[in-house]
Automatic annotation (TrEMBL):
Residues that span the membrane, as ranges: none
Source species of the chain: Forsythia ovata
InterPro entries, per the entry: Homeodomain-like_sf, Myb_dom, Myb_TF_plants, SANT/Myb
SMART domains: SANT
Subcellular location as annotated: Nucleus
HTH myb-type domain boundaries: 9-65, 66-116
A molecular function (GO) term: DNA binding
Alphabetical UniProt keywords: DNA-binding, Nucleus, Repeat, Transcription, Transcription regulation
All copies of domain Myb-like, residue ranges: 9-61, 62-112
Pfam families cross-referenced by the UniProt entry: Myb_DNA-binding
Protein name: Duplicated homeodomain-like superfamily protein
Amino acid sequence: MGRPPCCNKANVKRGPWTAEEDAKILAYVASNGIGNWTLVPQKAGLNRCGKSCRLRWTNYLRPDLKHDNFTPEEEECILEHHRTIGSRWSLIAKHLPGRTDNDVKNYWNTKLKKKLTKMGIDPLTHKPFSQLVTEYGMISGLPSTGNKNALLHTSLANAEPYLLIKEISRAKAINTQMMGKFLDPFSRNLQWNAMAQFQVMNQENGSSSTSSASSSSFVSPLSYSCERSQIQIAPSSPSECNEYILGDPFSSVDTGQMSECRTPAILLSNKDSVSRPENEKITQLPAKHSTAAADSFVDGILAHDNQMRLDFPNILDEYYDDY
DNA sequence: AAAAGCTCCAACCGCCCATAT
DNA sequence: CATATGGGCGGTTGGAGCTTT
């Protein structure tokens, strides 16, 4: 059943490549070109997995690769595209001739992320931390109760950016993680019914939407109430879609205080959100959440999508074309 | 001088989707 | 149709080299 294995994983060499091995791959590609990588180890006389050979060629041996430092122009390019699409390294690398996704990813992780942080810019959202704090405060109201928010207040008062960043990142991570529980593994769409049932269970168990981050309940930054099998979401405006994912997990929200939202990088960075045709994005959503409010959320995503395409026609259209 | 900590990046891991069998 | 691989991708890691203590 199925294809034969490409190699005996247990017996192939791993780790750093020697000059001789590199020479063998270069010689093989020079005479045979790039084809089936699983045949390369055998034909080139290498005791390596084909996948490992492909990676070595792609990330290091390709003759068109640059091995010098990134230029300021390249740096700017990475920043701009990362701000737009997030950590889609292969897509970003397409805009940088001679650079691989691995190069871009390493450069981001070792240099740019730190550089932005030092400049007071959140590398995830590309917003100034001061703005994040303002928005965070507007979202949560920063009530004085609760250890987490107390820590935020302390961080602010004592000017401890590290703690502040850590807490905001933690908040984002927790909500992202919780949202992940409600993503359909196949369609990657939110499982609204599951979210609703989860919320109902929490309410029945005496949990409220003000539960702490240490509990396992997902707390939308938007105030919504749930009835059995029906979720009612009431965002104050369609533009607040990203707060579903990046919002405050610690406290309930006065939706009237919601701040202006930009197109969420985390949504754009979702491969499926980019790759799916527009009509499919809508029709795949479960019927149960076809309330006016939920529709406005979908509309919000689509509106942002359209806006982004208007704002960055050259960039996003390329991505759409790629899929 | 040497131990500890830090930076960088090549290589690996594990997942996904398309495709071959 | 079921199963396994190929290729692509993003995330993570190991270790060499450098810096700090």
